[in-house]
Amino acid sequence: MENVTILGHAKINLTLDILGTRPDGFHEVAMVMQAVELADTLRLTKTAEPGVQLTIDVPWLKADEKNLAVRAARLMQKTFADRITGGVAIALEKRIPMAAGLAGGSADAAAVLRGMNELYELGASDEELCVLGAELGSDIPFTLLGGTMLATGRGEVLERLPDFPETYVVLAKPHISVSTAWAYGAYDANPATEHPDNAAMLRAIAAGDRRAAAALLNNVLERATIKKYGQLADIKRRMVAAGALASLMSGSGPTLFALAESCEQAETIADAVRAQDVDVFVTRTMKYQSK
């Protein structure tokens, strides 16, 4: 095999709870994560010369050694040095907005891990790839597997859940950036008094009850971010007024998502927020797909 094309899918958080700070300095979390169809496309091609070449269709996004896609490729080369004899050229087409709370960088890294595995016919299992992914970032194991998962630990300990009912999702990414470190620091300074009911969320998902699940959306990082960026509250109001089952911030933000009952309703919601200086995407939840 000389080349392979892999999609790296975005995620949303149906819940995000912080349980405390771990001895390693990370936060202990418990969150229900959901993959969506919005994805970056990565094309990996073998090269005779060793090394990693990355090109990105977003000119201002750096394709250097700090990029997670490059780091993932180098980790595969190091781990399987006896079987990867050449290099790899990666062409990345970005669709997932960056610094958005949608795990776009993690999705790219996960796609590279899976792509290198296929390109060089390494035969590594999902479990092995997840272990490698966890070395690079807490969201990467989830973006490797997708579907609907309960994530604990620092986000890398995953429990597969029944598939969330297929649901249209509207994503609204304001033209601001929120630092993950800032979001967690703001939470630490003023912890939430209301936490997600993950047990109830798991029951709603198991029952295939989209409306019950929508009523349980909760992200403890949202309050501080909305306090700093008031336009997020207005976007949420517009989404709900346009018929959304519910709206929530994903991850550390600033992207807001809305769950819709139909494609038509999703388009109505999207139209309601397009004038708010945001990037808007209409997508759908994804079922778990065994690789």
Explain what the structure shows.
Helix 1 links the parallel strand 4 (52-56) and strand 5. The model has no long low-confidence stretch (mean pLDDT 95). The protein has helices spanning 68-79, 104-119, 126-136, 140-145, 180-189, 198-206, 210-215, 222-228, 231-241, 263-273, and strands at 3-13, 15-21, 27-47, 52-56, 87-93, 148-152, 157-160, 168-174, 218-219, 246-249, 256-260, 278-284. The strands form two sheets. Strands 1, 2, 3, 4, 5, 6, 7 and 9 form an eight-stranded mixed β-sheet that branches. Strands 10-11-8-12 form a four-stranded antiparallel β-sheet, with helices on one face. It has ten helices and twelve strands.
What topology does this entry show?
Elements: E1 3-13, E2 15-21, E3 27-47, E4 52-56, H1 68-79, E5 87-93, H2 104-119, H3 126-136, H4 140-145, E6 148-152, E7 157-160, E8 168-174, H5 180-189, H6 198-206, H7 210-215, E9 218-219, H8 222-228, H9 231-241, E10 246-249, E11 256-260, H10 263-273, E12 278-284
Parallel strand pairs: 2-9, 4-5
Antiparallel strand pairs: 1-3, 2-3, 3-5, 3-6, 6-7, 8-11, 8-12, 10-11
Helix pairs in contact: 1-2, 2-3, 9-10
Task: Provide keyphrases for this structure.
8-stranded mixed β-sheet, alpha+beta, single chain
Amino- and carboxy-terminal Cα gap? 18 Å
- Sheet with most strands: 8 strands, mixed
Q: N-to-C SSE series?
A: EEEEHEHHHEEEHHHEHHEEHE
Say how many strands there are: 12
Helical content stands at 25-40%
